[in-house]
Structure formats: structure tokens, C-alpha cells
TrEMBL record:
Gene Ontology cellular component terms for the protein in this record: ATP-binding cassette (ABC) transporter complex; periplasmic space
GO biological process: peptide transport
Keywords assigned: Signal
Record's subcellular location: Cell membrane
Recorded topology in the membrane: Lipid-anchor
InterPro entries reported for this sequence: Peptide/Ni-bd, SBP_5, SBP_5_CS, SBP_5_dom
Leader peptide range in chain numbering: none
Annotated family: Belongs to the bacterial solute-binding protein 5 family.
Protein name per the record: ABC transporter substrate-binding protein
Pfam family membership, one: SBP_bac_5
Solute-binding protein family domain span: 91-454
Alphabetized GO MF terms: peptide transmembrane transporter activity
Length: 540
């Protein structure tokens, strides 16, 4: 999971995200065709000297330990290999590990390719691979990715090209960690930079398709093709990421050719992008959800009726907009994850029976009247200044709540400061979050958004929500398969819908816009993110 700062970006190895392509014209969803329903043109095998990729957000670190945010992971995906990758269907597949097996419920054994080299030409060893995961458990590193590893006991070298991960307890979702948090870095390099690996002054040493040349949080990053790469090399020789934070400026930059593509389409105003004459656009349902979190351990959200009053006070339908590529969220689990677990019909049946909180100020007033704070209160709420949609939502909510005696003082703060606040787990109160997930497994989402382990710094349980019955269901989720696992998810999601520690808002779509000089050579799906740079070729 990461906090999805930029709107409309692909889900990569730690962005991720099973639904098929949504055609940009909107009429042929799932067709695999580009703008207007026309097939993409043929691709050339000629090299591309340079691609400039526009970004809405500022990458913070080119390392998942201290850069677990949307903008950073876009760069990490092309620079840093993971042990496994994800297929177009979102299933784990070989990458730096050529094969793997689950030897027993708590033991995973990985066979490492012998032909993988770092950017400097040195060979990747099993020791490098083991260290690349173990470092996230080191308190000196203080890794933001540590929340993925609460079940980890140890990872060690067990052969010349073999690494074994041992868990404290069974965790059926651990297999996906190797395709998300397990970024391969050179041990000798990383040990010298426990806290600043991936920073502008230190950079990093990886094995990905591109080697990092320079990096600035303010302007972006420059990478060059890694000629030592063990797998399919991209046709792009030089890849530049350019920060263009304003949506309209970014759109005009694409139209004029100053940038060649972007994942950061303004999905709330998609038509402005889909009508660009020299650009093809693609959309797919994101493995992401927008929500409000409420800190249930502190006033006023320690009262469930306050949380229900807030849930009834927002007219989500009116705020969505006719051109928005988003749908109302029924619960905190993403659509791709629900479909992967229950199937399309099963997911729809389950969601239909969940408690709903339609916009109804009479019900909001009645709920507040049942709370400990029936006379009303004033609350300070901050949000990231990156996505103006949050301001629109919060201002509307504030206007409605004022009619029942609740005053919200809303303030936008720099995105970096807001993300630091969330990871710091301090003064949580109410937060506006766009969270993305890297796998089709609900066990990636639920154990980090809920439960005791996520209530600490670098944890993702922004609601501080836990109880013994919930912990029991979270344990069942990690230890079971099939119908038992489905039942655990049902129990957890139903409880959250009833108690409202989180208020689900919208499911967005991932978007990509690409100059028609180039071709995206496969169907654009929820899971296209990991290999995106190798899928771009020059149009024939």
C-alpha cells in the first residue's frame, strides 16, 4: 500500500493494480483499443532516444523504505527490480527469482537467476537479495515498508543462488511481498546509507531496466537504459521524469510535445484529455480507493454516531461530476481485490448487503443527536494541497455539517508535510486519503489499514481501529484459503461498514496519456504498471 498522491496514475509494483482495459472513448470498455475505439498502430523495433514523462507529484526517494508514495514508486518501478513481478492478470511471476516454492505454510524458497547484474556490472548475489528484504525489519532503517512484514521472522541465504524467507506465522499474502516491497539493492552500497539510500545526493544501486543518473524531488529524475539488464530491454535509451504539478499545465505540455506521456491524467475532468488530437488515452479501474479516516481513539470520533453523522453528510454523487472517471465506493476494499476473491457476481452480491450511508442530513442530524457530542463541536482538518478534489469534498462536507452544529476548519498543507503527518501517526483526527495497493489480494489492504500492528509510526491504520474480534478475523485472513478466507473478509468488511472507522468515497481509474508517435504494445490493464517502460515503442 502507498498513499496515492498523484491522481490517475498506474499501479506499479508497489503501485499495482483485476479488471481489464477501459477504452478511452468510454463506449467500448474492455476492448483493448485506444482513443475512439481504433486499434493502435503497428510498432517499430527502432530505439527511442528519449522519452519525457510528466508527473504530478514530487518523488521523495528512489527507495521504498523512505519513498512509499505514488510519485516515488513510478520511478522505482523502472529503476529497481523486485524478486517477483506481476502478470497482466495480477499473478506473481518470476523476475530476479527464476522460480520459488512454498516449502511449508511458513517457508518460502527462492531460486535466484545467475545472470542478474547491478548497474555497475557486478553480479547480484543471494546475500544482496536477502539483505534487500531484511533491511526493512531493521529499526535503524525505519522503513515505511515495514508494515508489509509483520509476519516475517527472518530471511537468509540457503544456497549459492537461493534465499529462504521464514515467517512467524502463516500468511497467504506474503507471496505478493516479493512483487512489491522486495526491491533488489546492492548490500554493500545500501549498508553505507541506511537512512538516505535513494536520495538525490546518494542515489542507489539497483538492477532495473534503467539506471538512475540524477534525481531531484523538485524537478524529477533522469535515467538511462541499463545495458546490463538481464531481461527484455526497453527501446527507450533515456527516460526523463519531469514534475509538472498543475493538471492543466501538464495537459498543455503533452499537447505541445514538451512531455511524451503521463499517468497523471485529471480523471475528474477526463474529457479534456481524451479529446487531445495528437494523444491516445487509456483507462483501467485502479486498485485504489479514496476515503476519509476517523481516529476512533480520540474525540470526537471515539463515538460511532459522530462517524455515522459524517458519513450521511456528504453528497458524493453531486460532487463526482459528469466527466469523472470514478464510481462511488461501497466499502474500503478495492474493486479488483473483491473481484479476485469473490468473482464478479459474488462481489456484487456481498457489497449489496453492506450497510450504506446515503446523503441524508435528517439522518445525519439524528445520528449526531445520539452521540456524546450532540451539541456540536469544532474540528481542524488538514489535507494535501496536491489534489484540489479534496478541497472540494471537504468544503461541501463542512457546509452540510454546519447545519447540524459541527464546524470544520479546513486547511491545505504541502503534500510532503501531509504524507509525513500520516506516516508519523500523530494528531490523526480526520484524514483525506487516496490509497493504492499493489496486489489483487485483500490481505494486502485489510491487515495494514486495521489492527494493532498498524497503529504505530509508519503504520497505515489511520483510524487506530482494532478489537479482539477484528484481530481474530485478521488472523483467519492470513491463515486460510477458499471459503474460510472469503468469510474472514466478509466479517471484517461488514464490521468496518457498520462502525465507520473509514468512510469510503470513490474508486478512481488509472489513466495513461501517450503521444501518438508512440505505441503501448499490450492491452492497458489494472496490472500494466510493472513493465510499462518496456511496453512503449515507436509507432511504425
Amino acid at each position: 500500500m502507498f498513499f496515492r498522491s498523484p491522481p490517475g496514475r498506474l499501479a506499479c509494483a508497489t503501485l499495482a493494480l483485476g479488471l481489464t482495459l477501459t477504452a478511452c472513448g468510454g463506449a467500448d470498455r474492455g476492448s483493448g483499443k485506444a482513443e475512439g475505439g481504433k486499434p493502435q498502430s503497428a510498432a517499430s523495433e527502432a530505439d527511442i532516444d528519449k522519452i519525457v514523462w510528466g508527473m504530478a507529484g514530487n518523488p521523495s526517494m528512489i527507495d521504498i523504505a523512505h519513498g512509499l508514495d505514488g510519485a516515488s514508486t513510478v520511478v522505482q518501478t523502472v529503476a529497481l527490480d523486485t524478486l517477483l513481478t506481476l502478470t497482466a492478470e495480477g499473478k506473481p511471476a518470476p523476475a530476479v527469482a527464476e522460480s520459488w516454492e512454498r516449502a511449508d505454510p511458513t517457508t518460502y524458497v527462492y531460486k535466484i537467476r545467475k545472470d542478474v547484474k547491478f548497474w555497475d556490472g557486478s553480479p547480484v548475489t543471494a546475500e544482496d537479495v536477502a539483505y534487500s528484504l531484511a533491511r526493512h525489519m531493521d529499526p535503524k532503517v525505519a522503513s515505511q515498508a515495514g508494515s508489509f512484514l509483520t509476519a516475517m521472522k527472518e530471511v537468509k541465504v540457503t544456497g549459492d543462488h537461493e534465499v529462504t524467507a521464514k515467517l512467524k506465522r502463516p500468511d497467504t499474502s506474503f507471496e505478493y511481498v516479493a512483487a512489491s516491497a522486495w526491491q533488489i539493492v546492492k548490500k554493500s552500497f545500501a549498508e553505507k546509507h541506511l537512512r538516505d539510500l535513494g536520495s538525490p545526493t546518494v542515489l542507489t544501486m539497483g538492477t532495473g531496466k534503467f539506471k538512475l543518473v540524477s534525481f531531484s524531488p523538485a524537478t524529477g529524475a533522469v535515467l538511462e537504459r541499463n545495458e546490463h539488464y538481464w531481461g527484455q530491454k526497453p527501446k527507450i535509451k533515456r527516460l526523463e521524469f519531469k514534475v509538472v504539478s498543475d493538471s492543466e499545465t501538464r495537459r498543455l505540455a503533452l499537447q505541445s510535445g514538451q512531455i511524451d506521456g503521463t499517468f497523471d491524467i485529471d480523471t475528474q475532468n477526463a474529457r479534456r484529455w481524451t479529446t487531445l488530437p495528437n494523444v491516445q488515452t487509456f483507462f483501467a479501474r485502479a486498485n485504489a480507493v479514496r476515503y476519509f479516516s476517523f481516529d476512533v481513539k480520540n474525540k470526537p470520533f471515539d463515538d460511532v454516531y459522530v462517524r455515522k453523522a459524517f458519513a450521511h453528510s456528504l453528497d458524493r454523487n453531486a460532487l463526482k461530476g459528469a466527466d469523472a472517471r470514478m464510481v462511488l465506493a461501497d466499502n474500503i476494499v478495492t474493486e479488483p481485490q473483491l473481484v479476485a476473491l469473490f468473482g464478479k457476481e459474488g462481489a456484487a452480491q456481498f457489497v449489496a448487503g453492506l450497510p450504506k450511508y446515503e446523503f441524508d442530513m435528517a439522518k445525519a442530524k439524528a445520528a449526531l443527536a445520539q452521540s456524546k457530542y450532540a451539541s456540536g463541536f469544532t474540528l481542524d482538518v488538514v489535507h494535501s494541497n496536491r489534489d484540489q478534489f479534496w478541497s472540494k469534498l471537504l468544503q461541501s462536507l463542512a457546509q452540510n455539517l454546519k447545519t447540524i452544529g459541527v464546524t470544520l476548519n479546513i486547511k491545505a498543507i504541502p503534500n510532503d508535510a501531509y504524507v509525513a503527518k500520516l506516516y508519523g501517526h500523530q494528531d490523526l483526527g480526520m484524514n483525506a486519503v487516496n490509497a493504492a495497493f499493489s496486489t489483487p489480494d485483500p490481505a494486502e489492504l485489510l491487515p495494514v489499514m486495521l489492527g494493532e500492528s498498524g497503529t504505530k509510526p509508519n503504520g497505515f491504520n489511520l483510524a487506530n481501529y482494532t478489537n479482539p474480534e477484528l484481530e481474530k478475523n485478521l488472523t483467519a485472513l492470513a491463515n486460510t484459503v477458499g471459503a474460510e478466507r472469503q468469510e474472514a473478509v466478509k466479517n471484517i468488511v461488514t464490521e468496518v461498514a457498520d462502525q465507520v472507522p473509514y468512510m469510503p468515497l470513490y474508486y478512481d481509474e488509472n489513466g495513461m496519456a501517450l503521444n501518438k508517435k508512440y505505441v503501448f504494445t499490450q492491452e492497458f490493464t489494472t496490472w500494466s504498471g510493472q513493465d510499462w517502460s518496456a511496453l512503449i515503442k515507436r509507432a511504425a
